[in-house]
Amino acid sequence: MPAILHQIKSCKGAPSEDWRAIAATLSRYVRARTNRTDVVEDVVQETLSRLVHQSRVQTLVSVYALGFRIAANLLIDHHRRDSRYVAEREEEPVSHAPLPDRVLVGRQEVAILRQALAAMPPLRRDVLVRRRLQGQSCAAIARELGLSPKAVEKHITRGLADLHKAMPGEACASGNVR
Amino acid sequence: MNRESQIAEEAAAWIDRINQPVFDAAAGPAFDAWMAASARHREVFADLQALWQSEALVEALNHAEGAPVAGLAPLASGARSARTWRTLPQFAAAACAMLLAIVLILPALSTTTYRTLAGKSRSVVLADGSRVDMSGDTELRVQILPWKRNAELVRGEVYFDVRHESARAFRVESGSTTVRVLGTAFNVDRQGPTRTAVAVYRGAVEVGVADQADLVLRKGDGARVVDGHVTAQPRIAVSAPDWKSGWFEASDIPLGVLIGKVQRYSARPILLQDAALQALPISGRFHVSDTDRVLKAVETAYHVDVAYGPKTIAIRPAGNAQDR
User: Which residue range forms the structural domain that includes residue A148?
Assistant: First the structure.
């Protein structure tokens, strides 16, 4: 349980039950994006503390949506710091052989996703590429592919659900973090 | 549609709405309500959001067959998206994340399960570079994390050739038996729920059971753990485990264990239900990958009946078989 939760109980907004669920959800998300336990703890703590602060100064449109956004931004900050750290480390004379698992497990993940993408109808794949890779809006995709916006949404939804189904991960990810 | 895939589709629809450049304020309370409704909603959404933002997805999409390559995209759409990225900070942030994340691939902490069918063996190189050779009818769960390496032998037999890493031990669990290694080659044979045999071909391992002192095995040593008791085994001379060539050296082991090994090579279930027969001590060198030959040898040497049915093979005490 992140320590921040103890301070939240006095806050009058959402009951502490909700914060517990929010904390668990955010840790699950952050754990899926990084394999560094120290980063997970940092990011979740900081996200919660900012969320609590925000919820005190204004009424939040969506506490979950804001939470995910803050966590994503904090993850980027951590990655930046890490890349500097790695660059410094590489100049040290003592060098351990690089651990291939980071890259390899990433490889496995990519391979699974590629397979799932290959199994999709080409149109659905195209929609996902445009949305995620090229950052096109649903409206733009609909226009260019001659689809209705509803159909574009459906392709993204189905496509994402297919990708999710293809990923293993469930077994370990369901273990809850304190 | 089942419940689980319905949740996945609902979550995916939310992913699309939440990650729009301009978040629809009216959707906020509905999204929070959906998230609050069930723990499963929250789990699936968290997983999907991580997947959607992952660098792995970006890379997979880049490779997607028939996908328009970014450089070949129509100029108009390219210009439009470039403008969008500049004006919207969250998209710019996402772009940074994408670029940085491609450099630092951070995989999910997932457990990988490897399985083989009866009669099929398989060789796998794990994420840390270690190699595992799996015998038939074997299930191995592997978790390679930055700080530890774990494998669980659920059933069957595996030869491990572990890559040496001083900072990150490799642990194999087989029931209550734990084998701890640094870098070495060894074989773990799960002969039954409470029975495991370990043999070391290079380096050294520590074999431990819940609350017993660990036994250190060095190259050429073997040990057997039966019902929580560790016993050292005679030294092994060969350089690779017997099962790799389809053989099994039995010295005073229960018939049930031998049949378990034969079963790893036979698609037809072998039934051995008689408790006394299961415990019958067997010695000899058996070609376990040749089901018929082993059963014939056992039949002649130990006075049991082997009945070949259309779908199963039954082993019974001699004289009890009704069809002989």
Answer: 101-173
Q: Does ipTM come in above 0.90?
A: no
Report the C-alpha gap between B305 and B298 in whole angstroms: 9
**CB-side neighbour CA atoms (13 Å) of B126:** 27
Please report residues of B whose CB lies closer than 8 A to that of A136. 77, 80-81
Q: Which of A64, A89, A114 is the last residue of a domain?
A: A89
CB atoms B42 and A28 under 8 Å: yes
Residue ending a domain, among B200, B233, B266, is: B233
Q: Give the gap in angstroms from C-alpha A8 to the nearest C-alpha of chain B.
A: 18
A-B CB pairs within 8 A amount to 247
Closest CB from B54, B64, B127 relative to A105: B127
Interchain CB distance below 8 Å, B109 and A83:
no
Given A38, A56, A89, which residue is the final one in a domain? Answer: A89
CB contact under 8 A, B106 and A65: no
Residue B217: which residues within 8 A CB-CB, separation 6 or more? B186, B198, B199, B200, B204, B205, B206, B207, B223, B232
Q: What is the DSSP letter of B245?
A: G
Check whether residue B84 and residue B126 sit in a common domain.
Answer: no
Token duo for residue B317: 């005490």
Say if residues B190 and B160 touch (Cβ distance below 8 Å): no
Q: Give chain B's domain count.
A: 3
Same domain, B210 and B262: no
**Same-domain check for residues A18 and A67:** yes
CATH, residue A42: 1.10.1740
- Condensed to tens digits (0 to 9), the pLDDT of residues B155-202 reads 999 999 888 877 788 899 998 888 888 668 888 888 888 888 888 888
Residues of A whose CB is below 8 A from B143: 172
pTM confidence score: 0.45
Residue B73 three-state SS = coil
φ/ψ of A174, rounded to 5, equals -80, -10
Name the residue range of residue B291's domain. 246-317
Please indicate whether, in this complex, the C-beta atoms of B64 and A161 are within 8 angstroms of each other. no
Total structural domains within chain A = 2
Residue B144 to residue A101, Cβ atoms within 8 A: yes
Tokens representing A34 are 């990084």
Question: Is A8 found in the same domain as A85?
Answer: yes
DSSP conformational letter for B250: E
Q: Cβ separation of B77 and A33 shorter than 8 Å?
A: no
Q: What is the pLDDT of residues A130-158, one digit of tens each?
A: 888 888 888 889 998 999 989 999 999 99
